[in-house]
Amino acid sequence: MLEHRERTEGDRDELAPDDPRQVTDEGTLKTFDEEPDARYGEGDDLPGGLQAYFTPGAGTAQHSLLLPRNGVLITPDLFVRSRNGPLEFVPAEYMHDAGEARRTAERLLELDFDVLCSAHGAPLVGGAKQALSDLLAR
């Protein structure tokens, strides 16, 4: 099990990085039964060649993972896509900060990827970076 280590200041995110408890979106405290094997943050190289990128917006401490050798980007709750549909942002009412999510998406265009796997919906296999660019142009 891995856990991100990025924390932001604010009333919902006051736990120490080594605290196994987490604050849910509802503001309640959730406790895990075990400590993660490792913690990671922006720029860390992870097992399997994955690279971590801090991608706030949908939440305050989320990361996307890039597998550079295959051009695969795995994103958290930023995007949604129905099977064969266009890439869309998760609706703003489900995001922590929709403006920050958009700025995060713009930064993702600096990465080299052709496949995008989102936490919600069908993956985009081929042309993913262009689809993200198209989303930002709308």
Walk me through what this model shows:
- With 138 residues, the protein is of the alpha/beta class.
- It has a domain at 42-137: Ribonuclease Z/Hydroxyacylglutathione hydrolase-like (Metallo-beta-lactamase, Chain A), CATH 3.60.15.10.
- The protein has two helices and twelve strands.
- The longest helix is centred in the C-terminal third of the chain and has 11 residues, at 98-108.
- The termini are far apart.
- Mean pLDDT is 82; it is low at 1-16.
CATH architecture of the domain at 42-137: 4-Layer Sandwich
In terms of DSSP E residues, the strand content is 25-35%
The CATH topology label of the domain at 42-137 is Metallo-beta-lactamase, Chain A
The largest sheet, given as strand count, sense and whether it forms a barrel, is:
5 strands, mixed
What's the name of the CATH homologous superfamily of the domain at 42-137? Ribonuclease Z/Hydroxyacylglutathione hydrolase-like
**CATH top-level class of the domain at 42-137:** Alpha Beta
Pattern of helices and strands: EEEEEEEEEHEEEH
Give the integer mean of the pLDDT values.
Answer: 82
Poorly predicted regions are: 1-16
Provide a short characterization of the protein structure:
The protein is α/β, with parallel strands linked by helices.
Main attributes?
26% strand; 5-stranded mixed beta sheet; alpha/beta; 3-stranded mixed beta sheet; 138 residues; single chain; globular; Metallo-beta-lactamase, Chain A; 15% helix
